[in-house]
Design a protein that fits this description.
Radius of gyration: 25 Å
Number of helices: 11
Strand content: 5-15%
Order of helices and strands: EEHHHHHHEEHHHHHEEE
Number of strands: 7
CATH topology of the largest domain: Rhopdopsin 7-helix transmembrane proteins
CATH class of the largest domain: Mainly Alpha
Distance between the termini: 52 Å
Structural class: mainly alpha
Number of domains: 2
Length: 377
């Protein structure tokens, strides 16, 4: 369903224009995107705080990469309202300075490339830790920080800068002809051919190559973990059987298996969330270049495809912090302790009696019930 609106072009008379979306469509998009943006900001900030302030979690190279991923998702959540404005109220007339149009496109592409490279890096380091544990022990946080910084720098140069140059508000001479029915905040038409070449090369390198690699690596990692576990159990059982005649799993082995299961689960949920968000998003951009918007029906298809792909991207970024907690018992414990500490600080009279065993031990921290966990606040 579409609605008829009147648009005043800068260099033409007032003409009738049929938008490719209805008022109900705009409201539905806002209902989906705005709550997810707020939740994405909240969840990613909490995850960053929990990891950074935990002595145990902050020492893990994988958790450092998760922090960097959360920063990327946080930026994406912050600019989500700009995307909503571009596809609804600002579709025909961007109501803000062009600077914010450029900010939306540049940060959106920058963080997308950062996320894609991080998934590839995360899978590669996990593969390295399983296949070459001796050499992996030599890897420190310093090495991972360097790799993460390089990732952000490459993504800035190859993602942020081109989009800042190529995108903006439509030129006055585009009121008719090719690109006239694109959203107001869009690709500058003079850069169309450069952008087509960029998408063919960059999308293959920055998105599809990482997708293919992690799709191959992830099952291999799971297979290697299970193979090493089988060999380890068989070796231990042979030793125990020779001494006692019984085959049982030790407590250490059970804990080891739980850690391995968490590693497999963590990898698969991160990769799965990445696929959920970026496969539709990258497919939409390629579709946009291949299929013109010359009729209202094509415009409607473009708008619906674009909005659905962007909502899935937001869903992916929102569920990432949830997945991090699902896949890691340590993360869950630290997150619960963090929320309890916040409740104690905000409402000490209400929660001091229900959280008797987890009271502040000093001005900067508290100790958990078992006396082993401590978080600096």
């Amino acid at each position: 369903m579409t609605e008829l609106v009147t648009i005043a072009h800068l260099n033409t008379n007032i003409t009738d224009r049929i938008r490719p979306f209805s008022k109900n469509g705009a409201i539905a998009a806002a209902i989906f995107i705005l709550p997810m943006a707020l939740f994405g900001i909240f969840a990613n900030v909490v995850t960053i705080i929990v990891i950074v302030r935990s002595n145990k979690l902050s020492k893990s190279v994988f958790n450092f990469m998760i922090v960097s991923l959360c920063v990327s998702d946080l930026f994406s959540a912050i600019i989500s309202p700009l995307s909503l404005h571009r596809r609804t109220l600002g579709y025909d007339d961007w109501m803000m300075p062009e600077f914010f149009c450029k900010v939306f496109w540049s940060f959106d592409n920058w963080t997308s490339i950062v996320t894609s490279f991080h998934i590839l890096l995360f899978s590669g380091v996990r593969m390295f830790s399983i296949s070459a544990p001796t050499y992996y022990q030599r890897m420190t946080l310093y090495h991972v920080k360097i790799m993460v910084c390089i990732t952000w720098f490459i993504a800035f140069g190859s993602g942020f800068i081109p989009y800042w140059l190529w995108f903006g508000l439509k030129d006055e001479d585009r009121s008719e002809g090719i690109g006239s029915n694109w959203p107001d905040c869009t690709l500058k038409y003079q850069w169309l051919q450069s952008f087509k070449l960029y998408t063919k090369v960059a999308y293959g390198i920055f998105f599809y190559m990482p997708m293919i690699v992690v799709s191959i690596i992830s099952p291999i990692i799971a297979k290697l973990i299970l193979k090493k576990r089988k060999e380890r159990i068989q070796r231990k059982n042979n030793e125990v059987s020779a001494a006692t005649g019984q085959n049982t799993l030790s407590d250490f082995e059970r804990k080891h298996q739980r850690r391995e299961n968490s590693a497999i689960l963590q990898l698969f949920v991160i990769v799965g969330s990445f696929m959920l968000g970026y496969v539709p998003s990258s497919a939409y951009f390629l579709y946009s270049l291949a299929v013109p918007q010359t009729t209202l029906a094509e415009e409607i298809t473009h708008w619906n495809f674009g909005m659905i792909s962007y909502i899935l991207l937001r869903v992916s970024e929102c569920v990432n912090p949830i997945f991090y907690n699902i896949a890691s018992s340590k993360m869950r414990k630290e997150t619960i302790l963090f929320f309890k500490s916040v409740l104690l600080k905000c409402c000490p009279s209400r929660y001091s009696e229900t959280i008797v065993s987890e009271v502040p031990t000093s001005a900067t921290g508290y100790t958990s019930r078992d006396g082993n966990q401590k978080i600096d606040l």
